[in-house]
Design a protein that fits this description.
Layout lengths: L1 E4 L2 E7 L2 H4 L7 E6 H6 L1 H4 L4 E5 L8 H13 L7 E6 L1 H13 L5 E6 L2 H7 L4 E6 L2 E8 L4 E4 L9 H15 L6 H8 L7 H18 L14 H10 L6 H18 L5 H12 L11 H17 L5 E5 L3 E5 L4 H9 L3
Parallel strand pairs: 2-9, 3-4, 3-5, 5-6, 6-9
Antiparallel strand pairs: 1-2, 7-8, 10-11
Length: 339
């Protein structure tokens, strides 16, 4: 599928692992998560220039970006070169930001290898690095020219990575007019049997939203549902709580706040909570005491610095509302409340 995102053209291509390398220009420069390279020799044995990175959230920062900039300069990469990111959301976020800045922009391709990468991080053109322990504080809008979707690689994902991607899928399902919700309700615990369909539905839904609002000034803000809570949790835990788990908890907290502010009725609140809890073990959605203490002590700074501090909340029977920032103590009480 081809999409026009602002001044950028993006093509989403579904393929298989054996074919993806053949569809990338021969003069490409690859930034690859080293865990992916160890799983798939086809990436590790590339004839082209490649850089393996340790794709941890704590490394998604200026120091790692500088290492990639130096590597690109050493290899005489220019604006006509293609930079290819292979990995999950950390890799595509980081590499995308580097590509958007190196020589004011190089050709960019993404090969997401996680569920969260395929349905969210590599889709729509947001790039970012963390700065001063604040999640995604420095970033740009720079859609990849091509995004290769390879559903087969999901077979090697650990269960916690599947759960992380599910959180973003549930978020998409809870947005207005989403077709994903009905399918998830029908499938219940068997939702993984329809990986292929759910991935395609999510990509199409997100791309259509981003086509209408690339730079996140209107409709696209709905995609931030649960993320203000999530980013505070991630930052306060020094990224020991992975993004997907933080988003799942964040959606519950957004529903709780929406109910307290009388934006939604009890029936919708109960439905949202039941939907999220039905897909996760109970302890997955509970914050440990050390994280609660960290949020109480350090969370205010992360909350006030977060670029998503305009809260995205539930509204009415089937809507989403952009809500002005509430004061910290009320936000804190919601986020640390035992659900």
């Amino acid at each position: 599928m081809k999409y026009q995102l602002g001044e950028y053209n993006t093509e989403v291509i579904e393929t298989i692992l054996d074919q993806v390398v053949k569809q990338v220009p021969t003069n490409s420069f690859w930034v690859i998560d080293n865990k992916v390279a160890s799983l798939y020799p086809i990436f590790n044995n590339l004839p082209d220039t490649k850089l393996l990175v340790n794709a941890e959230e704590t490394n998604k920062n200026l120091k790692m970006a500088e290492e990639i900039f130096n590597w690109l300069k050493y290899n005489k990469v220019n604006r006509q070169s293609t930079i290819v990111a292979v990995g999950g959301g950390i890799t595509t976020d980081l590499t995308g930001w580097v590509a958007s800045n190196y020589m004011r922009g190089c050709n960019l391709m993404h090969i997401p290898t996680t569920l969260i990468g395929m349905i969210d991080a590599a889709i729509g053109g947001k790039t970012a690095i963390n700065f001063n322990q604040t999640k995604n504080l420095v970033g740009s809008f720079y859609p990849a020219g091509k995004v290769f979707i390879i559903p087969g690689v999901l077979q090697t994902l650990q269960e916690k990575e599947i759960q992380a991607g599910l959180a973003e899928l549930l978020k998409m399902a809870l947005l207005p007019e989403s077709r994903i919700l009905k399918l998830l309700i029908e499938l219940k615990s068997e939702w993984k049997t329809e990986f292929h369909t759910l991935i395609n539905m999510s990509i199409e839904q997100k791309m259509l939203i981003c086509q209408r609002d690339l730079r996140d000034t209107g409709e696209r803000r709905s995609l931030n549902l649960g993320h203000t809570f999530a980013h505070v949790i991630e930052s306060a835990s020094n990224y020991q709580i992975e993004h997907g788990r933080a988003v799942a908890i964040g959606i519950i907290k957004a529903a709780r706040l929406s109910y307290e502010l009388k934006l939604i009725a009890r029936e919708r609140y109960d439905f949202i909570i039941k939907l999220i809890r039905s897909h996760y073990p109970a302890n997955y959605l509970q914050l440990e005491m050390w994280i609660i203490n960290a949020i109480s002590n350090k969370g205010k700074e992360f909350y006030e610095n977060d670029k998503k501090s305009k809260l995205i909340l539930f509204s009415g029977e089937n809507d989403i509302a952009v809500f002005d920032t509430i004061e910290w103590n009320k936000f804190k009480n919601i986020i640390i409340e035992v659900s």
